[in-house]
Amino acid sequence: MNCLGIESTAHTFGCGIIDDKGRILANVTDAYKTEKGGIHPTEAKQHHENAKDKVVEDALKAANLKPEDIDLISFSQGPGLAPCLLVGLKKSTELAKKLNIPIVGVNHCIAHLEIGKLLTKAKDPVLLYPSGANTQVIAYDGGKYRVFGETLDQGVGNFIDAFARYIGLGFPGGPKIEKLALQGKNYIELPYVVKGMDVSFSGILTNLKQKYDSKKYNTEDLAFSLQETVFAMLVEVSERAMAHCNKNELVIGGGVGCNKRLREMCTIMCNERNGRFYAPPNEVMVDNGLMISWLGILQRKQATTNYNSLDIKPYERTDDVEVKWR
Ligand code: AMP
Ligand code: MG
Question: Ligand 1: which residues within 6 Å by Cβ?
Answer without folding.
Answer: 10, 131-132, 157-158, 160-161, 172-175, 178, 254-256, 258-259, 286-287
